[in-house]
Amino acid sequence: MSDLFPPFAPDPDEPRKRLFKPVPFRVIVPNIITLVALCLGLTAIRLAYEGRLEPAVFAIIVAAALDGVDGRVARMLKGTSRFGAELDSLADFVNFGVTPALVLYSFVLHELKSVGWIAVLVFAIAMVLRLARFNVMLDTPNRPEWQKNFFTGMPAPAGAITSLLPIYLHFLGVPIVDASVAPVVLVYLLGLAFLMVSTIPVYSGKTIGKYVPRHWVLPIFVVSVALFGLLVSFPFEMLTAITVLFLASIPVSAMRYRRLERLEAAAAAAAAEPPRAETGA
């Protein structure tokens, strides 16, 4: 048997196998937050089909809050990565495209049968198209600085939270679970899908909060605590108010965007105009 497997010495010139470099934990932390948000979104679907709408709504809202946290944590820890960006987009599609549409289908849109399901498909597809456009626009950093303060179309988390308005109204006592009201919910959902894929500018507020005047610090603390208390004590009243105010702000954002666009065009035209030669008397 020793002839079949003769001993041999390893070749000293043989290249060593490449080992994968260890990944810093600061890169993993934002992805863990994203995965927790994804778990909440998927759990919201289960809760909705079990008839537990209230925790399903809260799961989607917490997922939206975590979506706003993971990117900031990644930038703060200097843990941004291409993998994290792709994972975040896929999680957003599930949490804010698939989950709210299915929750609404289990809530009232199932009354419309196939037509209600078509609305679910349209909303989900509009969400994935909106996310794809957002990812492409990240690769065009030459936009004017003022344009970075606006989203093109309704952002994904806002689309999800806004789409749940019929459920908020249901918990406030408005009779929503009715076959006669289902078409209204369907039109509302399709309208949100249109806002997401449209080019209507929506104010993002990204530049707010970089620097705060010192005399505004304490009032901001007080207002923040008051808003948190109201949200905890009257969640559906506050969510309804936030949704209505957000929808009302969209025309204001569009008008502000057009005004800044006209100012930029006027400034560019003035810069391109050749200087007039002065004539002596």
Automatic annotation (TrEMBL):
Q: Which UniProt keywords apply?
A: Lipid biosynthesis, Lipid metabolism, Membrane, Phospholipid biosynthesis, Phospholipid metabolism, Transferase, Transmembrane, Transmembrane helix
Q: Give the matching InterPro entries.
A: CDP-alcohol_PTase-I, CDP-OH_P_trans, CDP-OH_P_trans_C, CDP-OH_PTrfase_TM_dom, CDP_ALCOHOL_P_TRANSF_CS
Identify the residues that the record assigns to the CDP-alcohol phosphatidyltransferase C-terminal domain, covering every copy.
215-251
Annotated membrane-spanning segments are 25-47, 53-69, 90-109, 115-138, 150-169, 181-203, 238-255
Which GO terms of the cellular component aspect does the record hold? Answer: membrane
According to its UniProt entry, the protein's GO biological process terms are: phospholipid biosynthetic process
Principal place where this protein is found? membrane
Stored Pfam families: CDP-OH_P_tran_2, CDP-OH_P_transf
Single annotated GO MF = phosphotransferase activity, for other substituted phosphate groups
Q: Where in the cell is it found?
A: Membrane
Membrane topology value: Multi-pass membrane protein
Q: Which domain of life is it from?
A: Bacteria
Q: Which family does it belong to?
A: Belongs to the CDP-alcohol phosphatidyltransferase class-I family.
The protein in question is named: CDP-diacylglycerol--serine O-phosphatidyltransferase
